[in-house]
Amino acid sequence: MLESLIEKWKLRLLLLAFALWCHQPIGFAQAPGADSNSAAEGVALLKQLLQESLDRLRTYEWTETTVVRQKGDEKARRLSRCHYRIDGKLQREVMSLAKPEKKKEEVSDYIERAITLVRYYAPPDLSEIQRIHNLGRTSILAIEPGKRMTVEFRDYRFQGDKLDVEIDLGEKRLSSLHVSSPLGEARDPVTLEVRFGVLPDGTAYPSEGILDAKAKKLTVTVRNSEYRKQSS
Description:
By secondary structure, the protein is an alpha+beta fold. Helices cover 30% and strands 43% of the residues.
């Protein structure tokens, strides 16, 4: 099933490259025949890759390092041991927490909102991306015909936000995730960039995410590392 979906999208994107070469400058474009059926196939492919990653990660535990910086100065650092529980929920156990200075309640709340935002988008929830697709807020974009494509979701969590998930068709895996979203009561515009890594057994995982809140001169970096199989 996964192989056939990937091969189908490779062909679609190659056709797109030909159409662009014949009729318009090459750039980002919606895949050919990107009607509701095509969007559904793109979402199905994304869901399958996400589910495959989730199923494999359930056998692992790892360390999550969250670092918050404001104006370049480190404000907080949190190390957590992570693993998926039997019910499929992600469990985080804080191993260490460093707060170099006492933060104002307003700033502390903003930081927690920023961390929550990162966790909400990465990785995307399977039922949520299906819900957004059912509402007709999904597009398929070609980046590199036959090799890379993006599934785009509009108004994913908030009105005006956007979630893009890039798929590497050649490697048959998740590549990256890009988010633009409002944050806090002032609805400050923030961006989130997530890169996916690959474990030795081929498991794709979100290796690093960086949230940038320029209005507050604040960044939140989340790194996942030290993956090891859970003891049975």
